Amino acid sequence: MFDSMIKQARGVAVSGLCRAELEGLVGGAGRVVAAMNALQTRCATEIEALDDGGVSSKVVLREAGRMSTRAANKVAKTAAGLVEMPKLAESLASGAITAEHAEVAVGAAAKTSPQQVEDQLSGLAEDCSVDAFAEQSRRWVNRNQPDDGAERYEQQRKNRSFKHWVNEEGMGVLLAELDPVSYQQVRKAIDVEYDRLWRGDGGRDGSPDDVRTVPQRMADAFVALLTDTTRRGPGSTRHQLIAIADIERLRGDNPTGVAEIVGGEALPQTVLERLMCTAAITGVVFDGEGQPIWVGRTHRHATEAQIKAIIARDRHCRGKHCTAGPERCEIHHIKPWEQGGRTDIDEMCLACPLCHHNIHDRGYIVIKTKTGYQIINPNNPPRGP
Predict the structure, then answer these.
(1) Residues 138 and 25 occupy one common structural domain
(2) What mean pLDDT comes out for the span 330-345?
(3) Are 304 and 260 in contact (CB under 8 A)?
(4) Which domain, by its residues, includes 33?
């Protein structure tokens, strides 16, 4: 069976096909890959149920499936999680979702419950890309954890570690495992210094990658932060650590309110209070559908307060299936400023350089949906509102 399928796949001609035909083939291949992943997952489940003294499913996946140890562990973990979520298991088997969707769902179930995920996330998985599903699942988990995330955060804090050694090539190796808040603080600091170095290497108008590669620039930014204290600073708003908290949580009178780092996990009340000791607090008022009511004055560039409000609303680039974080985004005027567009937060959105380029040079547009702004190709509109 498999040899026949491989032969048929290799025999599909792609040269000379139009874009629509190529996109159709990519989509069909994706469904086949999802079905094959589902088959491996089902096999892993059955292997674990055998009581024959044989090797574990992880070993079989690694050896017979020719997977890396990490990939084999992921499949085995997903298989175990899907046992309690039959609807999602069926979606994976039918090719409606991918193995990556299933992996995200199992991770969400570990933080909440399998039944909650089945009831509230299974349909969403079939309608979203993996990146969009992961982002929406993360935010859903932050609002549905049994507590405010305190127990999980404390365990993460206990597990923090830092190791360093010199490898066989004489290179120094640093390995840090940090709780989510500490990680975001470190990452934002590195992002600020990386941005400075990138601009010094030529930035958008030059060829910065001809000066040094991205990993080299990241390494140089890290060293500069540790060895030169004058480099440390808040940088632009897009590179600062931004936490979003319901007013109830800021007052401390409602445990059901939510607080979270943009792009990160939920913040326990104790951690939120610690961050508030040194944080600048900005008020942003939203209506019932998540649209900002309070807006700034009209001028060419968005103010720092406006940028914070836009980040709080958009969270990431508004391109369809794009989840580039705010540190990688630019502020886009939905109606061009030079054509009379206003610099108000309800007339701007986050757009990463690629999506911004698509708007200005490829005819993409920004539309308003029930879930916020979205950058789309008008010749291939998304389903739904």
Answers:
(1) yes
(2) 82
(3) no
(4) 18-144
